[in-house]
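Hey, sorry to bother you again with one of my protein questions. A protein chain has come my way and I'm curious about its shape. I'm sending you its amino acid sequence along with the backbone structure tokens. I owe you a coffee for this, so here goes:
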Amino acid sequence: MSNRGAFVPSDYGSFRFVGIEVDEASGAIDFSYELAGADAATLPFAERIMLALPDDGRNAEWTAARDILPLLGAVLGLSYYKAAAPPRYEIAVDGLTDAGAIFLREALRHGLAEFAYRAGLPALLETEVVVTGARGEARASADLPVERLHRPLAPVGGGKDSVVTVESLRLAGLDVTQFSVKPNAIMRRVAEAAELPFIAADRRIDPALLELNGRGALNGHVPVTAMNSLIAVAQARLLSLGPVVMSNENSAAEPTMVWNGEPVNHQWSKSLDAELLLAAAIEAQTGERGGYFSLLRPFTELKIAGKFAATDRYDHAIVSCNRAFRLSGAEPGWCGECAKCQFVFLVLSPFMSRERLVGIIGTDMFETPALVDGFASLLGIDAHKPFECVGEEAESTVAMSLAARSAEWGQSAVVRAMVERAPELLDGDPALEASLFSDREAPTIPAIYSSARNVLGARS
């Protein structure tokens, strides 16, 4: 910890996004921010994004990329804003459209709701967003050019969902480029398994923020998916690629809990509401329709699990364990204990043999009695579901019911314990099961992508 004095968040009354600097030769974009207070020294922050430049002799399309930078910088600023969570967030740079400002307000209110809940800061949800820079004019919209439409950029995160997206796009005959922000060993391993082009951007958070955290700054969950989405849009536009095709599922819309009448959703920036707001903001900033959407939006996690089971080329590569992503090492794997590991094991169990699933995860989680309470929380038994990227309680309930009624898993220790707590699991619920394997509401997307949604296997 620093020897400097304690940081007092209440000393700061405003946060400002004050600058964007681009180095076209290196691909570096620097965003500048500051915390200000009446009786406290102004604290500056600087974040750098490094985009990948063309490696085939083509010119980088910086004019196209610059369109999205005011919105990208505003959303990245939430990482620094939260250090003090002051009542005012000011956009002092030029070029943010009204739709961009609306997205920022919603990202602050809903994307930081979990942070506000954990920090006990209900007033944060009413933070004033003020645009003092010159407003950007919303562009007249046009569809993506055909030559770019067939060249999607698909962010990969190392887990089953982005695998389903990449494989679906491949099978549909599209020219897929995979993408990650600051990729770790897991992401690179999954990208290599796909045997498709892969590019990466770098994100360098100001070390001053980390130092401030050690002195008492507020800290917690931010809408990382929204941040990475906008970095991907900037990257796609720089390289003249097509739409950014995400892997956010319908289940992400379910709140983790309700706090003072306010829904708190750990996955808000993966939700349908966030997708619609962000797509509208991107269209206003760039003048292009269809530049951002999720291929998996109509699907529940349960249906996506069935699609993943239809391909085995990634079994050795994927890891959907958040603990693994926080650890260093060349070959990080599943911890086999956390809520994310439990959910993935559970949701894949209806579609895989014990041998295959244990081979992927590395342990038989259904034979670990210490995990019974964790599995129960996924079903909403005696607790709300965890603050993790896990599916709906209904999905977990159906997956456990399918396991309980199967010869493969029915006699496992955890499954038997769950049946003791909820005997109705043995009865099943055909109507609920049918609804979870049916497509749900999703925005209209280009026809070729709509077709791509259904080329990879679903429920067996």
User: Anything to note?
Assistant: The first helix runs from residue 62 to 66. The first strand starts at residue 14 and ends at 23. Residues 9-135+142-210+217-294 form one domain.
